[in-house]
Structure formats: structure tokens, C-alpha cells
Amino acid sequence: MVNVLSFPQRARGLGTTAVFWSFALTAGVVPATQGQASDRAIFVANNGNLEGSVTAFGVNPDGTLDFVNKVITGSRPNMSAPCPGCNPYEISITPSGRFLVTGHASTNDPYEQVSFFEVAAGGSIAEIAYFSILGTPMDVAWITDELLAVTRVDSNQVIVYRFLPGPPPTLSEVDAKSVGTFSTYLAVHPSRQNLYVNDSGGGRQIFVFRVNANGTLTLLQQQPTGSNYALEIGLTHDGGRLYAAGGITHVLLGFGVAADGTLSPLSGSPFPEFGSSPSNVALSTTDRYLLAGHGTDATVRSAAIDPNTGGLTYTGQMFDVGMQGTLGDVQTLDNLFFVTDNSTLDGGVMGVYSFTLNADGSFTQNVPIYGTQGIGPRSIATWRPALHPGDSNCDGVVDFDDINAFVLALSDPEGYAEVYPYCHIANGDCNGDGLVNFDDIDPFVDLLTGM
Question: Which domain holds residue 431?
């Protein structure tokens, strides 16, 4: 039997912010397992007005999805009833893959909610805590496994919290910084040393902060975006460039990222839109392509990224989700990407599409839309274990399709990187000695045969 305990508590250092925490005790004991999905997974925040929820899917080698479970974060009979757990707007997963968090925009003023989940090895999720915080957390982004950045839109601030899973779970404020007039999106540098916050209000700029060892923030730069908006912002996986969706200013912005994290506009930026009103940006794992989701025409389109200049060239490839405003998010995972659709135009289903991104920037829809079993699917978090010994072709399983890739990793590492740009060669380290060499052959065969 699971007993869920919920207590109001005044948090030290949060002033008038009321914090609520909950934790589950199973048979009187909290499991000490370190959560993390052992295989690829995606998690979708369902931004329902009457029911908020999060859906977990496993990702198969061919890009198809398996429904794992759905957790309801809040529900209400009508819009006049309070529901702090409704409308999970954004979602983020920790670098280790152990925890998820959602920020809610439920109009439960002046306090809103952030909800925390633990991820099990099979990819299922369980809510372990929820906290009421002052202001609307329009975006949430893990800096580390403990430090969480949140945009507090009502007071135009970015807040850094420290989350400790306990028991009991606790959330404490570490730092708060002013960030213009309307800041709704965050991005964390792959090094975890810099945080970027948009300002799409009167200031029209991107704030650049250094993340100090204690979790406090130091302002490094306020990079103007001119007359253009910077809505969702995204960094390349190598951390060398940042792109932003320009929304109704009908552009895409591009910046080079210096060693200290500061920004400088790329040559040719702002780049003309190739859809209508870009609202989302996502980078392919290889950093060769940018995927842009659009608000007005509800399309996702790909553009090639010039490796030298960072300039964008539209590939001509697009997929139309449907009506204006129905495309929720675009996120990448290996050679796949996913798009949420909050309409019911496709067979009456609200859900997520899965695509394979091909080497030339074209993309192939894997199967029809997957229903999330939730209302208003919006933000997506993706997860892939850092290493999967034996999975040399990076399709999520160890099977006979890995043999050629494993042989290539042994014989020609540079050729392997060219043929399998989405993979990490360390997947060939099957004996765990930190090397990929002939000593890995027998362990690879053991993995292959299931011994």
C-alpha cells in the first residue's frame, strides 16, 4: 500500500513563498534505487486545462513508440475550480536521467506549482513531490542533478532552486536575478556552466549568466536581438552556437558562443523564416541540421547548418501538423525527432509524431500519431543512456545489426564516426576497461548471444 503524505511548510530563505512537499512511502520504506531509464525514452507534458499529466514512452530502434504510463498531476471539474497541478507547460530531465520536473501555468495565482518525478529503469515515472512557488514557472531547466532553473514570469526573474529528493524532498531557493520584461524560455550550455534566458518583452534580448559552483548566477551579458523576438532558444550539442525562434518577427536568430559563454551574432543573422512564425528550435544530434516548429502554419521544417558560418539553408522538407497554434514542441534524439500536436485533426488523436531525420536533412514519418492519453500534449523531454555497451549502431538494442558497426569501431574509429555520427564509440567498450580493442570481442559476443 502506498501512503502519500502532503504537508504545508514554510521554506527557509524563500520569504513569503509557501512550499508544499509530498512523498510516497511504500510499506514504510522509500526505495534507494537510483532512477534512470535503461533504454531510450521520451516524456510528454500534457498541458490540459481540466487535467494535467505526463506521459512516458519507450523508443524502439525503428523510432516507433511504446506507451509506458501516464501520471495525472491535477484535475478539476471546471475552469472556476483551482487546480495547481493542471497545465504542465514545460518539462525537463536531469543530466543523469533520474528526475523529471514540470512547470505549471494553471492560473492558480499568485502561487503556481512545480512537480517532480522519478524515472524507473523501465522508463515508467512516479510523482515524488510537488511544490507551490510564487509566480508562474513558464520554463524549467535542470542545470545539474540538484540545481534547477525556473523562469518566474510574474516578477520577470530567473530563479535557481536546489532540489534534494530526501526523504522528505526539499526545494530551496539559491539565487534570483531580474531578466527583463517577459522571459519565458531557458537554455543550459552542455558544459553546465552557462544559463541563457530570453526576454521577448520590451527589452528584446538574451541574458547570459555564468553558473557558479554554489549555484548562484553571475550576469555576463545582455545580448540585444534588435527588433526581433527570441522565443525558444537552443544550443548545438557542441555548445558552439545558439539559435532562437523569432515568432511573429518572422526570423531565426543565430549566435556564436565564446569560451566564456557570451554571444555574438552569426554572419547573416537574423535569418529569414522558412515557415510562418517560428516558435520552436531543435538541433540534430550531429549539429548539421536545425528543426524549426512554427506557430502560424503549424509546420516543422529542417534547415542545413553551414559548418563554417552557422548559416541556415532551408532543405525544402516540411510536415504540417494542422491548424495554427497546434504544434507544441520539437525535440531530437539520436537520428530521430518528435513533434507534439494538441489538436484532434489526425484521427481524433492528440499526441506525438515520430520522424527519422535522414543524412540529407529530409525526414521520414515512422508511423501515425501516437496518443499520449492526455489533454493538450505540449513539451517533450528526451532521454538516451550515455553508453549502451554492445549497441554499436545506436538503435537501442544489441543484436546482429551491431556486428558491422562493432567491427568498424575496432578497425577504423574515424570511419565509424563518419558512418555512425549519432553514436558514441565507447558503446564498443564491452568489457568496461575504458578502451575499444580486441579484448572487447568476446564480451561483445556474450552480449550478442545473451549469455
Answer: 400-449
Integer Cα distance of 35 and 367 in angstroms: 29
Rounded CA-CA distance 388/405 in Å is 14
Q: How many other C-beta atoms can be found within 10 angstroms of the C-beta atom of residue 243?
A: 28
- Of 306, 297, 302, the C-alpha closest to 283 is 302
What predicted TM-score, i.e. pTM, was given to this entire model? 0.84
Read off the pLDDT band of 37 (50, 70, 90).
Answer: confident
- Could you tell me if 436 and 417 are in contact, meaning their C-beta atoms sit under 8 angstroms apart? no
Region class of 80: left (phi > 0), else alpha (psi between -120 and 50), else beta: alpha
Residue 414 CB coordination number (10 Å): 9
> Cβ atoms within 10 A of the Cβ of 80, count?
6
pLDDT in tens, 414-429: 888 888 876 777 788 8
Domain shared by 60 and 134, yes or no: yes
Query: How far, in Å, CA of 114 to CA of 152, rounded?
Result: 12
For residues 367 and 354, is the Cβ–Cβ distance under 8 A?
yes
**Are the C-beta atoms of 13 and 346 separated by less than 8 Å?**
no
CATH code of the domain covering residue 305: 2.120.10
- CATH number at 220 reads 2.40.10.500
One domain for residues 133 and 83: yes
- Alpha-carbon span 361 to 245, nearest angstrom: 19
| 3-state class (DSSP) for residue 265 | strand
Asked whether residue 388 is assigned to any structural domain, the reply reads no
Instruction: Dump pLDDT digits (tens) for 392-420.
Output: 887 778 889 899 999 999 999 888 888 88
